[in-house]
Amino acid sequence: MSDWSKALSGFAREAGGGAGNRGLEIEEHLLFEQDEPGRTGVDLPEPSSVPDRLGGMRRESAIGLPGLSEPQVVRHFTRLSHKNYAIDTGLYPLGSCTMKHNPRLNEKVARLPGFADLHPMQPMATVQGALELIDTLAHWLKTLTGMPAVAMTPAAGAHGELCGMMCIKAALEARGEPRRRVLVPESAHGTNPATAATCGYEVDPIPANARGRVDLGVLKQKLGPDVAAIMLTNPNTCGLFEDETLAIADAVHAAGAYFYLDGANFNALVGRVRPGDLGVDCMHINLHKTFSTPHGGGGPGSGPVVLAETLARFAPLPWLVHDADGFRLVEQNPGEAIGRIKGFHGQMGMFVRALAFMMSHGADGLRRAAGDAVLNANYVLARVADVMTASYPGPAMHEVLFDDRFLEGTHVTTLDFAKAMIDAGFHPMTMYFPLVVHGALLVEPTENESKAGLDHFIAVLRGLAERARAGDADYFHAAPQLAPRRRLDETNAARKPVLRWRPPTKVAAE
Amino acid sequence: MRYLSLTDTNRAEMLAVIGVPSIDALYRDVPPSARIAGPVDLPHGQGELAVERALTRLAARNVPAGSVPSFLGCGAYRHHVPAAVDHLVQRGEFLTSYTPYQPEIAQGTLQALFEFQTQVALITGMDVANASMYDGATATAEAVMMANRLTRRRKAILAGSLHPHYGETVATYARFNGFEVAAQPPDAAGMGDPAAAIDAETSCLVVQYPGFFGELRDYSAAAEACHRGGALLIVVVTEAVSLGLVKPPGAMGADIVVGEGQSLGNALNFGGPYLGLFATRDRYVRQMPGRLAGETADVEGRRGFVLTLSAREQHIRREKATSNICTNSGLCALAFAIHLALLGEAGFSRLASLNHEAAVRAAERLAAVSRVSLMTGTFFNEFTLRLPVPAAPVVEVLARRGVLGGVPASRFWPGNAELAPLLIVAATETNTEDEMDAFAQALGEAIR
Amino acid sequence: MSIVKYTSEHEWVRIDGGEAVVGITDYAQTQLGDVVYVELPERGRTVAMGKEAGTVESVKAASEIYAPLSGEVIDINASLGDEPARVNTDPMGEGWFFKLKLSNPAEADGLLDEAAYQKLVAGLT
Fold first, then answer.
1. What residue numbers bound the domain in which A161 lies?
2. Fold of the domain built from segment(s) C3-124
3. Domain boundaries, chain C
4. Would you call C107 helix, strand, or coil by DSSP?
5. Which of A44, A88, B190, C64 to pair with B214, CA 20 to 30 A apart?
6. Cα of A145 to nearest chain B Cα, Å
């Protein structure tokens, strides 16, 4: 049998090297490796020979794009999709990410031509329904958070953080107080200090206390007339509610600083607690977390920022205004608005999806969803606390944090444990974040998970913990064995980065 | 509620296991004064039919661009997206998956990103591209900050060809990140010499190609002037389809190419979500922000893909990161990649030719309207007309007559008398000759 | 006769008269994991004691390299561009980072000697 035939029929795998198909899981080469010159998957009319107006700027060389037919392209991406785990596949317990169900109603309404086929620069009279939708979503966000204003344009959570910190900086400049420092808990998501630094601030970390919360004593010590803001997450990244939040708000405000809340964990609070009641000045909301817009393999997101009265006038352009003439966008403003932070008006496609989600749940449903998210996390905690080491005593909020003390002496690391979960059919939880505990494992089941699904997940966690403590480290080191790929060499990928396909160089003629 | 899988029986069982009487008890760390007693003042939940009805009603109050003759550009372009694209991106494994942090079970996303990166590098004529950014405007701001890091200078020159939203975004970032922007006035005639302003403090010159007013210019000389002055040339492409027909920015000597990828695979969506393209030279790759998919092998020697060079990113570098960016525009990038895979070399260049042809025909008809003149000599699929009257009211009249006839420059620069009569018009493969006739007719009537 | 001293940031410095070679210690490379990239200061650059002089990256972390002493960078280990793994396999030898011409050799008195550094590491592990 030829090598090619062997490879195709799976013999190569048995021989211990090379790739081969395995039933439904099919090896798929790159698009560029399937080229036939001149082939295309789109039928377009022949251009006529009208004299061009390119001014000599016509491309002279080929681009090098491969030509495939439509069936080939459909197969290519279908096969690729088979290699992905997704929410639709199973529980995706990534702490801090809120991997909740992505309803298909959202996809349907977002694709209505009356939303999807609108050009951003159409005359405003022709897009009143779209502007009203944005206004309605803004109303929901303000009501749920108890805040008077909202900036809708940020394209993602981190972008929302940037927007919020820019508003704070502008407000301080308007006050004539160029404060230089921003306080950020050590448990914070990396985007927080990165955002502060992008705005030119010096980042001053606050440690966690023994209860996993921000150390109020240290915080008060660090406050001073040069502190611009604190960036807090609540519930925090350890899955705990920052119960001293009112005292924190008071201390921060007394020092003349602003209270920024990272809203990534809003799923625990939505419909039950309003950040506005906690003294928050500014908070970004991740529509792709709390409000179910799809993660799409990494994006796009949407990060509207709710603002207190003191910050509202600095919100970036454009502003959406509703008056007797209807809805319109204010696109230029000599006032104190910080200017644009992106093109056009915001992530309209995500707005439609988020509003559909909110309308489907309603105020009552959102409250119930938050409660179920918290219930599910605490159930997991209660059922594995005897075999895994929870970092802090409960109750947890919507996510629960474990550390690697339960793996001590087993030669199994958090990473190894996670890879073994893959073979058991689960996407691992968030690992090694937050940094305040060793070998963190952060579990967030979300509200959609059934009790039976959780019980299955818990059984796997218990089984793996037992197996590690029984000394079967080899099993964990070899994991995963059943996924489309086994462990990949990330070291070499970073040492000798290959970031694109290149055509094979022709060997020079002898 | 149909998305919640727990029943009341389940809840009771689970609470018993946890050892608390109610879900409210789990919120005991929340100060009582901050807990709201009941649902907030918003409507109750509704079934699918009701929600669909309500949103369909809202949608019906808009005029979809495809329902009338539409000739709008200015950084967002209406192209035909093949049906297969939308079906593929809605596969649950793409739609509902996350950032590929566990590469063993994310090879679909990672390989697609690797292919996307290759496509972007190829069409821009550059060495390497990232896995996308939020949009063209933020990609431009990130490119300027990258140029600042590389040159250790803090002044960016923005040419008059740059999309005003992009320029405003860079200016906002400049204000807060602490660098300087020298923005040249809008260059409707396409005659400006932006490179003349380069000095010893310039980190980069940012030009747009094709320009905001439509003009196609060769920036090779500008690249040389930048390099002589120790600065970088950043070329911004807001219409990705143009790269199917025109000389690529890489061939002109660009150091960084950024732009907007919406034109391929993605609907207009009233301005978002879009995707920022970002490409550069090999030697600058470690300063490039955003995600990167890289090729490697697994322990069995099989080729696979991983996110790489992550040490630059926020989750590791925190305050020293190249950017605070966390998401890319994953699903939009996938749609771009699928569309371009379907087009291939032959289809992409044909699509671009059809766009140029449409614009040439549209320009001829519109310039033939009495007292209307064409300002742009060389263009791809967008050009600027000079009307004998202010363009903004004309556009309103056209809309009432059922034609979305271009964008008035005054929408971006109100109060600028020189630009008031200018109308920016785009034509794509979706515009028929009948539509062009209808536009020309309506325009003639509107300016009488 | 060269002497080796250490900083609390886990750099070592081998001082020979008015010149010194700088690298990171075995403890540091273990903490970092596989080194993938080292960003070194340019030849001719002046560095100040305790200030940032470069970066060393692994897959999962990135750390600043601080100049243990003040001086001018007279040589850098260009082989690390192709072979960053040397930092892991031979951190005190072939994994060196850069060589300085010292502007103030007396600064070395403020650094840790072998015993003091080992004590520091023992306290961390």
1. 105-359
2. OB fold (Dihydrolipoamide Acetyltransferase, E2P) (2.40.50)
3. 3-124
4. helix
5. A44
6. 10
Domain assignment of residue A7, yes or no: no
DSSP secondary structure of B410-446: GGTSTT-TTTTTEEEEE--TT--HHHHHHHHHHHHHH
Q: How far is CA A509 from CA A502, A503, A505, A506, B440, in A?
A: 20, 18, 12, 9, 59
Checking DSSP bridges between strand A441-443 and strand B128-129, what pairing results, if any? Answer: unpaired
Looking at the structure, tell me whether residues A158 and A239 fall in a common domain: yes
CA B196 – CA B216 distance, rounded (Å): 19
Helical axes B48-59 vs A128-145, angle rounded to 10°: 130
- Residue at token pair 């007396």: C106
**Considering the entire predicted model, what is its pTM?**
0.95
Give the separation between CA B75 and CA B270, rounded to whole angstroms: 12
Residues of chain B with pLDDT under 50: none
Give the per-residue pLDDT at A510.
43
Contact A495 C85 (CB under 8 A): yes
Quote the minimal CA–CA distance from B52 to chain A in Å: 7
A347 three-class SS: coil
pLDDT of residue C64: 86
**pLDDT category of residue C80 using cuts at 50, 70 and 90:** very high
Q: What are C23's strand-pairing partners?
A: C12
Q: How many Cα atoms sit within 13 Å of B413 on the Cβ side?
A: 20
The tokens of A282 are what? 């500014």
B314 near C CB under 8 A:
no
**Distance between A489 CA and the closest CA of chain C, angstroms:** 10
Residues of chain C contacting A495 with CB distance shorter than 8 Å: 34, 36-37, 84-85
Tell me the C-alpha distance between C105 and C18, whole Å. Answer: 7
- Domain count of the fold of chain A: 2
Query: Residues A237-254: what's their mean pLDDT?
Result: 97
Beta bridge partners of A355: none
Phi, psi of A93, deg, nearest 5 = -85, 40
Distance between CA atoms of residues B319 and B149, nearest Å? 15
* Percent of the residues in chain C that have a pLDDT greater than 90, as a whole number: 84
From the list A327, A463, A437, the residue with the least C-alpha distance to A384 is A463
Q: Is the peptide bond before B164 cis (omega within 30 degrees of 0)?
A: no
Q: Report yes or no: B287 at the C interface, CB cutoff 8 Å.
A: no
Contacts of A92 in chain B (CB under 8 A): 98
Which CATH number characterizes residue A430's domain?
3.90.1150.10
Q: How far is C122 from chain A (nearest CA, A)?
A: 19
The reply to whether residue B316 touches residue C60, judged by beta carbons under 8 angstroms, is yes
Cβ(A262)–Cβ(A284) under 8 Å?
yes
Average of per-residue pLDDT across A121-147? 98
- pLDDT of A348-383, one tens digit each? 999 999 999 999 999 999 999 999 999 999 999 999
- A388-434 pLDDT, tens digit each: 999 999 899 999 999 999 999 999 999 999 999 999 999 999 999 99
pLDDT at position A504: 83
Average model confidence (pLDDT) for chain A?
94
* Amino acid of residue A480: P
Is the peptide bond preceding residue B210 cis, with omega within 30 degrees of 0?
yes
Mean pLDDT of all residues in A209-225: 96
State the fold for domain B69-79+345-446: Aspartate Aminotransferase, domain 1 (3.90.1150)
Distance of CA B307 to the CA centre of its chain: 23
Q: By the CB < 8 Å criterion, does B14 face chain C?
A: no
CATH number for region B83-339: 3.40.640.10
Same domain, A434 and A329: no
Q: Assess B316–C contact: CB distance below 8 Å, yes or no.
A: yes
Q: What ipTM did this prediction achieve? A: 0.97
Nearest to C48, CA basis, from C111, C107, C4? C107
Region for A54 from its dihedrals, namely left if φ exceeds 0, alpha if ψ lies in -120 to 50, beta otherwise? alpha
Token digits for A443?
A: 């579990």
